[in-house]
Amino acid sequence: MTRPAFVFPVLVTLILVSLVTGVASLGEDGWWLVFVSRLPRTLAALLAGAGLAVAGVIMQMLARNPFVEPATAGTGQAAGLGLVAVTLLAPGAAIWLKMSAATTAALIGTAGFVALVRRLPTGDPLLVPLTGIVYGGILGAATTFLAYERDLLQYIDIWMSGEFSGVMLGRYEILWIGGALTVLAYLYADRFTIAGFGEETTRSLGLGYGQVVALGLVIVSVITAVTVVTVGMIPFVGLVVPNLVARMRGENLRETLPYVAVSGGVLVLACDIIGRVIRYPFEVPVGTVLGVLGAALFLWILHRGPRRG
Amino acid sequence: MDRLFSTLSVLFITVIVGYLTIDAKGHWDFVLAFRGAKLSALLTIAVAVAVSTVVFQTITANRILTPSIMGFDALYLFLQTALVFFLGGFGFASLNPFAKFGVETALMLVAALALFGVVLRNAKDLARMVLTGLILGVLLRSLTSLLNRMIDPNEFSVVQQASFARFSAIEAELTWISAAIVVACFLWLMARHRMLDVMALGRDTALSLGVSQDREVRRLLVVVALLVSVSTALVGPVIFFGLLVSALTYRIAGTWRHGVLLPVSALVSAITLVGAQTLFERVLGLQTSVSVVIEALGGVVFLILILRRRAR
Questions:
Q1: What is the reported pLDDT for A309?
Q2: Which pTM value belongs to this model?
Q3: Percentage of residues in chain B with pLDDT exceeding 70?
Q4: What is the DSSP letter of A4?
């Protein structure tokens, strides 16, 4: 396990498994089925997983804390709140409008979290995720409140629990925006690594700290919003993957970011396949599978301590 | 102290009268009987949550922890679902309700003692412990929903019916058993309020004063688990309600004595819950489940406690 290059053969295997797993058998119309449903679903899982893992690692650099990710920092919940708000104000809004509302809300929500974290003294690193979880809980309660009053609860439930069963050709392409941002994050990887050393170090190296943070926030928010709007919230990917990769490869983002992205995609795709077969022919949403697996991994990381490198 | 209790009692009576009478249309005997049943359920929950939280905070010597934050509620729901999963919907439904509650509570006690005994032993690192509790809650809730998905769709309705009602729709049959249990627990705890005072001084002091700390903690955890089972069976999981109530209680009571803390917390909890229910349902005409609003308020209290704790 010392060289994580093994994820690449795993990736190829999983893609093949994903393409042949499902209720409909690949008969005469096999190619059509693969092209319209299985391939988009596989790509969506990979894109969402890669995006969320990269968003997680960037958040960890910005918050200088290994225990945060978009789902434990209020980003996902804020995106959900934005969605509800736009659904209430303009029920028939086009998808791009919903997208922008979710992204804007995610940006504001994440900025709020960063502001909150700055008020926390640096003594105890675990206070940061704790605060984030509660902060996200409060945003989630606001969402539930609005949704309950307008009878949108079911609609929200479907939206907030990550699931790929509805993904088909034409219904996931927005996720490519997340893919593009993942590439952008790679181009700026060195700056995020430096920002991870803190504001003073960054400035003394001649970088605009504010700009790096702002860029990071935008990338994180857009990736999260894109995922929430298309497939729902998928917990723990952004948290578990970067921690495991950092354990094996250290924290130089320029070097580790491809591994983080690929491992994120692998994890989500694997969980989606598990969800498809565990109660065949019914499906278990990927959010639930990751809730179990991710939480267990998180507890393990938490109690092993954040040893790195 | 007398003024405190008389003020709280007046508030309590006002809230109860308000709940029973505001916006009542139709025959009084019908309205009162109908609302009376709901009211007794609300009071049962309020007392169970408040008292279990105060006792738990004394045991753990900490005012940020609550049984719900440590995942007790989620554990209860998980056990409930696991029972349906292994007994099947029919087996589960044909259990006598008393037997069912008994089995669930017994399982809950064993699991809670095993799990939280271990977690609480490493109580030095508070943030890590709270985080562990919260994530454990997430894990248990995900496991519950995973089991729900694995259960035969025909049997799923049994779980759904069994696993939770909201503050506004509560089963009458369960209420009376629960109320009796809560009253018994409350009286038992009140009888030991001096013991609790000593335990609040900390483990070492309590030991040197002749308290067999570990045995006492085990007993008290049993009562806490019992109270949590009762309230979760009635309304489902709440996370921050207990925290809200206990924080208010310490502020209002201004004492460490459990002879005062326990009844005050029960009163404060009842006033908050019934008052919120009256306000939202009757006065503002909202349908929102009160738990949502109370949870959000409790979350804010939690953040304030954490930020203030650090400022010192």
A1: 35
A2: 0.82
A3: 83
A4: G
